[in-house]
Each structure stands twice: as C-alpha cells, then as structure tokens.
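For reproducibility, we list the full input for the adenosine-5'-triphosphate complex.
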Amino acid sequence: MTTVPEPAATPPAAGTSLVRSVLTSPRGAIAVAFLVLLVLACVLAPLIAPYDPLAQHLSAVRAGPSGDYWLGTDSLGRDLLSRLLHGGRSSLLGVLEAVVAQLVVAVPCGLFAGYRGGAFDRITMRVAEVVMSVPVIIILLAVLSIFDRSMTSAMIAFGVLGSAGLMRVVRGAALAAREELYVTAAELMGLSRLQVVVRHVLPRCRGVIVVQASLFAAVTLGVQTGLTFLSLGPPPPAPTWGGMVADAASVFNQDAWMLVPPGVTIALTVLAFGVLGDVVRDANAEKQAAAPRARRRRHTAPATGATPREDVLLSVRDLSVATDGEHPLALIDGVGFDIEAGETVGLVGESGSGKTMTARAVMGLLPRNCRIASGAVVFDGKPIHGLDQRAFRELRGRRIAMISQEPMAALDPSFRIGSLVAEVVRAVDDLKGAALRARVVELLRMVEIPDPEGVARRFPHQISGGMAQRVAIAMALAGRPELLIADEPTTALDVTVQAEILDLLRSLQRENHMAILLVTHNWGVVADLCTKVVVMYAGQVVETASAADIFSRPAHPYTRALLQSSPENTPLGERIRAIPGTVPSPHEWPTGCRFASRCDLARPECTEGAIPVEALSGDRISRCIRIDALLGEEVSR
Ligand SMILES: Nc1ncnc2c1ncn2[C@@H]1O[C@H](COP(=O)(O)OP(=O)(O)OP(=O)(O)O)[C@@H](O)[C@H]1O
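The corresponding predicted structure, in tokenized form, follows.
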C-alpha cells in the first residue's frame, strides 16, 4: 500500500541540477566563465592592474594599444586597462547592491503573498503596482542629490524600485507551488508556514528568481553606466565605466579607439547577464515540463494523484470550495477523481457531504457566496477551473450539461415544451424554421417521449414529473455533451418512472458514448448504472473504487455503513440500520477523521491528525487508517 500524498516527496527544482544544466549549455558556460573572470579581474585590480588608474603618462596621451599600454591610454595618458579594471569594481558593486536589494524585498514578499493569499497578497500587489508606476529616474536623481552622489544609495533605491516586478513573478510561482502535493503533505505534517515556504515553496521558485535577477543585473549595469556617464556618480578622476565612455565620447571625432575598451566591456557584460538569464529560463522550463510527466507516471494508479490527468475526460484534483468573505469556510476540501470518456461515475454520500458543491464547481456554477479556493478541474486536457463565465458558457450546454433533481423547476411554465427545447437548440446549433422544429422533435424522440410533436405543444404543467425529466434530459442533450452531470435525477420521481429514466440514461450513454457523473444517495441507482463510485463525506472523498469493489468489499467504514443503511440491503421486515449521528457541518469538521465520531472502528489515533489518502490496488483509494481492521472484519464475516 502506498500513501498519498507522499510526505517525503521532494520539490522538482533542485538547485544543483539547475546549475549543471546551465554549465553544460555552451552559452551558459561561456556567460558564466566571462562573468567569473570579469569579477575576479576587477576584485584583484589593485594587484593585477599594470598602472595606478589615476597616474597620467603625458608622453603617451591617447596612445593606441601597445606592449606598454595593452588597451591604450586616454586624453590624460591614463592606462585604459587599469581604469577599466578599477572602474569595474564600482560598476559591479553597484549591480550587486541593486540585485541584493531587489531580492531582499521581492523574494519574501512575493513568496508569502503567493503562498498565503488573502489580505497580505492584495496589499502587497497593490503596493507593487504603485511602485511600478513610479518614475525611476526622478527617484534616482533625488537620491543622488540627497545622499551626496552616493552610488550605493542610488543602486539600493533602484533595487527596491525594481523589486515590484520580481515580486509579482515570485508570487505567481509561489501560487503554483502552493498547489503541489508535497506542499500539502508538508502542511499536513505540521510544518510551520515559514518552514513550508523556505523548504518547499522557495526551491520551486528558484529558477524564476535567478532569471529575473540576472536580467535585472543587465538593466542595472546599463542604468549605472548611464548615471556615471552623466557624471552623477563618483566625481572625476575616480575611474568608472560610464565616466570612461564620457571621456571617449568627448574626443570621439579625433580618436574613436578610446570608446572600444569600455564600450565592448559594458556590452559583453550586459550580454553575459542576459544570456545567463535566458539559459536559466530554458533550463527551468525544461525542468518544469519534465516534472509533471514524472509525477503523472508515479501517480497513474491512484485516482487522486498530484496532477490532473489529461488522458481522461474530466480530472478533478485537490478541489476545495470555500465561502467568500473575511472568514472563509471550506465546504469541500481536496476533492479529486477522474472520469473517462463514456464512463458513468457515481458520486455518493449523505446529505451535506458536498456532492452538489463538487458538481457545481465542475460546472463553474457555484453559489454567489462561494468560490474555488484551490485545486484544478481539467476537462478534455484543459483546465477549466479558472475560466470566466463567458468562457464557461461556451462549455456548458455544449460539452458539459447538467440535469437536476427538480426538472419541473427548470421548465419555465409560461412557455410550451417545444419552445423551451428550441431555445436551447438555437443556442448551440444555428437552426431555424423547419430544421429547428425537426431537431426539437428528434431530441424529444431520443428521450423516448411518445408523440413528441404533441408534447412539444404542451405547457410544463400539462406533463408528468417523469416526462419533465425526459424533457430536461432532451434539453441537456441538445449540445451533444461529452459529459452529463446528473444531480439526483430520479429522486423526485416514483419508483417505476425512476427505472425508466435510468434505462434512458443508460441507453443514451451507450449510444452517444457520453460520460455521466451521477450524483446520488441511492445505491440501487449506483448498482444499475455506474462503473466507478466516488464516496464523499463531510467535504472529502473518503473512498473511490469500481462499483463491483464497492459492493463486494467496501474499503472505508463510512461506505460500509452507508451500504448497510440502504433499504436495498435491509432484509424484508428488518429495521434499516441507520448510521448513528449526522454528517458534521463544515464549521464542525474535526482535525482527524471526520467520520470517527460515528465509526465503530475508530481508535484515538483516528482523531489525532489529518488522515491521508491510501492508494489500494488498481484505482482504489481510501481515506482510512483502519483499513486493515476493516478488511479483516469483512473477511471474517
Ligand atoms: N451557498 C452556501 N453557502 C454556505 N454553505 C453552503 C452553501 N451551499 C451549501 N452549503 C453547505 O455545503 C455543504 C455541502 O453541501 P452540498 O449541497 O454540496 O451537499 P450534498 O452532499 O450535495 O447534499 P444534498 O444531498 O442534500 O444535496 C453543506 O454543509 C451545506 O450546508
């Protein structure tokens, strides 16, 4: 038995492999080698520079490259190589100061904003937006004048102003990392927020941070050079790269060479930072692309692995829905299941277990006061959980349709049935006149309504409940959906009509190869139609298994109790064995197993901490740490 989530799962972006990927790329290796050599040469300038950078050699003014002056001299006979090496110290130190300032502000704020969300996130992002709209050059000029041309102050200010962009990028990466299984596992293990962020979220963001920092370094070098070019930095004769460009520019018409050493050095340094950023970005993208594949392979067996599956029609992962407002209340929590094309899956549980909320989240039709707090809903390989209502409308009725337990309530009493069905047909097919009428009759015939032309002319109050459900199904079928969500479609109908509707759904599903998510608390309906069953309790999936397994060997005490309390399983003349107690409401959910207070197998350890999902054989999963006792009891019966 494997435990899901795996507490020891490691984050994918290990720093060492990122460094290796960068160094094994020729571009990356050249950029790194250049930057390392440049930094070494500048740091060691007092030792290796051939001359004092301020020493004037008046016998060799504006001399070209020679054995004495490798890169030549300037208008005052100062050695260009020595000035370049000494000037690089302040330029590179400025870059370092700005990048460090940027990282110190942006990384913690971005990480916590993405990971925590809420008010901290909103405030941080608003502040970032304000900072991004500030005119940088004006602030820099002000800082330089206030701090007596201190380049360090200017560079720190530049880094702080530049942190807003990085903060947004880091926040995005942290938001994605928050959904990872290993982050959830770490939280379940009781790690503090700081520990989770530092150990599990930060490593995942390392790639984007390095990319942004190296690109920022390139920009900073440009800005720093610009400021010293304008003599806004250390006053002459202190050597600076910008100052050397300014000196060269003043004599450019007489001697163009003087511009070459500083110009080429600045250009190559900016290029090296840019290339380094590009290479890290590529290496990081490859790593991110490889990571989900690896995770998917590892988790194909359990139905609720870390990442949504793209090879199934509908894949729900770690879906949580909460109420809005200052004190959000989770209503469903970490729900996950898959539906293959053409498959019928039953979503079972007592009233209040979260079945309808799950179905509505899939449809993008949550109550106004609720929202998806986290998780993913992937339909036909594409995430749909973040779609806006307009995009959802393209899906709803066309590719995903829903029928509810109250068909009559869905039929407007002031329109004839034909008109109601036609309205839906027009929305999905551009049909008019005779073709429209023919399609309406065809749909009513598909749901086995006798005399469809006659029924089309009637008003809703003139038809029975069973007929109304058939009409609702006909309307749902108008867009030829690949997935039909049926929320207790037979609850309001009498027994014989129930059987007819179930027969109809089964034949429609077979003929149209349509998948069905059947929300029900009726085991008879499950046995009749479903190939797979997802059992929910108090907002969580507690068991997923094939219908055959569920009935022969339930692997969760709740499933077993639910089966035992079903009228179908109660011998004639005996009282139904109702499960004692009720489903706890969302605000009463206990820390450990939510079923423990009603479970005859519960032990103290069941209430000590969150119960992980156990992957059993095949696609079965169960959220119970007493499985062995449960299955043992089943065998000994
Ligand atoms: N708009 C809402 N705001 C707050 N809580 C809600 C809202 N709608 C439902 N709930 C709560 O969410 C939980 C799950 O409800 P849901 O309707 O999904 O359960 P269910 O299993 O479908 O029950 P039933 O079989 O009765 O439809 C319940 O505790 C319910 O009280």
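The longest helix spans residues 260-299. DSSP finds 23 helices and 13 strands in the chain. Both points were considered when choosing residues for closer inspection.
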